[in-house]
Amino acid sequence: MEKIKILLVDDQILFIESLKSVLETIAEDIFITELAHNGREALESIKKDPPEIVLLDVRMPVMDGVETVKIIHKKYPGIKVMMLTTFDDDEYVHEALKHGAAGYMLKDVPPENLVDSIRAIKAGTVQISPRIMVKLVNYSDAESLPTQAKDSIQAIEALSRREKEILYLISKDLDNVQIGEKLFIAEQTVKNHVHSIYSKLSIHDRSTAMKIANSAHIKYFYNES
């Protein structure tokens, strides 16, 4: 089995040691290359043994997470970075994503969900914590949504990876046939996913789905490359 090489970066030693143990215990496809306690140590580790994914805290001594992700994205564009932190401040979120972070998760995420997010990021799908996702909502667009639809924005994280892909393509005004062709799946399969999306978001029409996707910046969940 090919393992996902991950570098863990956090100044809280007990947390990072525990995280390493948990990840390698519950996921056979994950291998922790090294532990670093600040951004400078992380960059030194990457130079010696580049990982595929870096799990990176925001606030750290010597060099913080935002500066670190900026450097990693510039010097090592093939390495994906997921912020894993307790801080959901708007400034941190926007700066990290602006500088190339492929995800922003909070430390209270269940371990199994974190593993799923790591696998999704490796596959090209950016992962955002539900609490963070709400902060990314374009509220000026959201004002045009009915109250029930506004509430549905928070439910996007409950969608499967495939459903998020389809919702993104719905937001681009593709019909079921075009979506099926783009994702190499049958039209009926697309219809089944669309029905599931409507159910999970508590909506009933494509127009509302498009507004929700655009308001919640669903592009963060899908990588067209």
Explain this structure.
The chain has 225 residues and is an alpha/beta fold. It folds into two domains: 132 residues, Rossmann fold; 83 residues, Response regulator (Rossmann fold). The protein has twelve helices and six strands. Strands 2-1-3-4-5-6 form a six-stranded parallel beta sheet, with helices on both faces. Strand 3, helix 3 and strand 4 form a beta-alpha-beta unit. Helix 2 packs parallel to helix 3 and helix 10 packs across helix 11. The C terminus is likely disordered.
Could you give a short description of this structure?
With 225 residues, the protein is an alpha/beta fold.
List keywords for this structure.
225 residues, 52% helix, Rossmann fold, 12 helices
Look up the CATH topology of the largest domain. Rossmann fold
Poorly predicted runs are 138-142, 220-225
The sequence of SSEs as H and E is: EHEHEHEHEHEHHHHHHH
How does the major sheet shape up?
Answer: 6 strands, parallel
Structural domain tally:
2
Indicate the percent of residues in helices: 40-55%
At CATH level 2, the architecture of the largest domain is 3-Layer(aba) Sandwich
> Which structural class should the secondary elements be placed in?
alpha/beta
Number of strands: 6
Q: Give the rounded overall mean pLDDT.
A: 84
**End-to-end distance, in Å?**
25 Å
In terms of DSSP E residues, the strand content is 5-15%
CATH homologous superfamily assignment of the largest domain: Response regulator
